[in-house]
Automatic annotation (TrEMBL):
Signal peptide as annotated in the record: none
GO cellular component, one term: plasma membrane
Listed GO MF terms: calcium ion binding; cobalt ion binding; cobalt ion transmembrane transporter activity; magnesium ion binding; magnesium ion transmembrane transporter activity
InterPro entries associated with the record: CorA_cytoplasmic_dom, EF-hand-dom_pair, EF_hand_dom
Main location: membrane
Superkingdom to which the source organism belongs: Eukaryota
Ranges where the record places region Disordered: 32-53
Protein name: EF-hand domain-containing protein
Location of this chain's protein in the cell: Cell membrane
Residue ranges occupied by any EF-hand domain in the UniProt entry: 117-152
Membrane protein topology class: Multi-pass membrane protein
Annotated source species: Aphanomyces astaci
């Protein structure tokens, strides 16, 4: 099963027109992502045994507590190895995330509102915090908007540091709000504790990511260093980026969902290996699922 995500930057009345997602040159390139199921031959044989009935995962919305480390990561992601505190459900007991329950928890969490940074979700959070439609948020409104998307700001000193790091002063625009939410949530997925939740999950370490950046005159094909890939933008000459993920890596799928603001339903379909062919259009991207046939030659003994 192969899944292609075609990203159309921004909304437009003309479906063929590619527009920037935000008013920034860094987001003016077109991106396509291909996610393929790793061939079964690549995996070691699994022990057989009696299948136990699935358990019901305890699901609570994830929250992230703003910290000095998370603010540092948001503005200098490649310079600060210390990352923010693990984002987990506050009332959840992580000791039960093992055995049969852990993979189910990981599957369900793709639909957690914490990982939804789609334009419609963040637009709603911004406008709910700005009832007068002024187009900017005061510090108190900014705090309320952050908390509505699962980012808690209980440390006043850290919150003031975040405000001081914003380039446009205390008045927060919608573009600034969306950008900082993306950075804070993406940084959380690089925290060691968060990554530890995925260890031992089926196929969690099997995926391979390759990137092809190209324009009408240049091409670069490489296997990226993940931290740099997810926290930086392509070179200015890149007009189109093709990302190939071989295998179903739930952690990197979540990172892709936040970096490119993918719809949670599309990501859920990506995880489902038995999904039938389909085509969906969302506000900022198109989503395609279709099977791939592999032709192999078998020698016969004469």
């Amino acid at each position: 099963m192969s899944v292609f995500d075609y990203f159309r930057r921004g909304t437009s009345s003309n479906d063929e027109e590619l527009l920037p997602l935000v008013d920034s040159p860094a987001h003016s390139y077109t991106t396509s992502i291909n996610v393929q199921q790793t061939p079964k031959a690549d995996f070691p044989p699994q022990p057989t045994g009696t299948m136990q009935p699935p358990m019901t995962a305890k699901f609570n919305p994830t929250e992230h507590h703003l910290s000095a480390e998370s603010v540092s990561f948001a503005f200098s992601p490649t310079s600060h190895p210390q990352l923010p505190r693990l984002a987990v459900p506050l009332c959840d007991d992580l000791t039960h995330l093992n055995g049969q329950l852990e993979p189910e928890y990981i599957h369900l969490s793709i639909l957690d509102p914490f990982f939804d940074v789609t334009p419609s979700r963040l637009h709603l959070a911004f406008h709910e915090a700005d009832p007068t439609d002024s187009g900017v948020l005061t510090p108190d409104q900014f705090r309320a908007a952050l908390e509505s998307v699962g980012i808690r700001c209980r440390d006043e000193a850290v919150f003031q540091t975040l405000l001081g790091s914003m380039s446009h002063g205390p008045a927060i625009s919608q573009a600034d709000f969306e950008r900082i939410v993306q950075k804070l949530k993406l940084g959380n997925l690089f925290e060691a504790g968060t990554m530890a939740l995925f260890r031992g999950a089926e196929n969690s370490n099997q995926s391979r990511i390759e990137v092809c950046d190209f324009s009408s005159k240049r091409l670069a094909l490489y296997k990226p260093e993940l931290r740099s890939f997810f926290t930086t933008e392509p070179a200015p000459w890149v007009s189109c980026r093709w990302i190939n993920m071989q295998g179903h890596d739930h952690l990197n799928l979540k990172r892709l969902a936040i970096k490119y603001r993918l719809h949670p339903l599309a990501m859920e379909d990506t995880i489902e290996l038995n999904e039938r062919p389909k085509f969906d259009t969302y506000a900022t991207h198109r989503f395609v699922v279709f099977p791939i046939l592999h032709h192999t030659l078998r020698r016969t003994c004469s």
